[in-house]
Amino acid sequence: INDSEGHPSSSHQTLKGTSKWATSLENLLEDPEGVKRFREFLKKEFSEENVLFWLACEEFKKTQGKKQMQEKAKEIYMTFLSSKASSQVNVEGQSRLSETILETPHPLMFQKLQDQIFNLMKYDSYSRFLKSDIFLNHKKGEEQEENSPEAQTAAKRASRIYNT
């Protein structure tokens, strides 16, 4: 992509990997590799259930059909919200949730709780993740890949192709 003078433009290049993850938690959660690394970090912090709950809620919103919704809602409730949950998340208003809400599920029924968990991750875990060895080592690996002779050769080939 060239700018108005015909020079290669860098402003149109999209960020990838760790650079994109570092711009926002939303970008991190949109990248499967980012989610994998963030989960790895949260597991070490004993709070992996937060991202798992968030992901389960995202998946739940896409669920079609009342029966499937009921099953998925119950699964989310039993895994993350019930007092006997195996991976209980810590959210306000949790004590008021009862299994009766599971009988009439709707795509946004967990939205408020999901937002709480998102904010908890955004203002707590995410900033620590960006300073963690997991993130920094992945970033270093990406930078070494970009600076490898193979990557530079490919970039030169690409620039020859696009600048002819």
Q: How is this structure best described in words?
A:
The structure is a single chain. By secondary structure, the protein is an all-alpha fold. It has a domain at 19-132: Orthogonal Bundle (Regulator of G-protein Signalling 4, domain 2). It contains 8 helices and no strands. α4 (48-61) crosses α6 (111-129).
List keywords for this structure.
164 residues, mainly alpha, Regulator of G-protein Signalling 4, domain 2, 8 helices, elongated, disordered N terminus, RGS10/12/14-like, RGS10 protein
The poorly predicted ranges are: 1-13
The mean pLDDT is 84
Number of helices: 8
Content-based structural category:
mainly alpha
Rounded Rg: 21 Å
- Largest sheet geometry: none
Q: Provide the CATH superfamily of the domain at 19-132.
A: Regulator of G-protein Signalling 4, domain 2
CATH class of the domain at 19-132: Mainly Alpha
What string, H for helix and E for strand, traces the elements in order? HHHHHHHH
Number of E-type strands: 0
Shape: elongated
User: Under the CATH scheme, which architecture of the domain at 19-132 would be assigned?
Assistant: Orthogonal Bundle
Output the CATH topology of the domain at 19-132. Answer: Regulator of G-protein Signalling 4, domain 2
Distance between the termini: 13 Å
- What portion of the residues fall into strands of 2 or more residues? under 5%
Q: Helicity level, as a percent range?
A: 55-70%
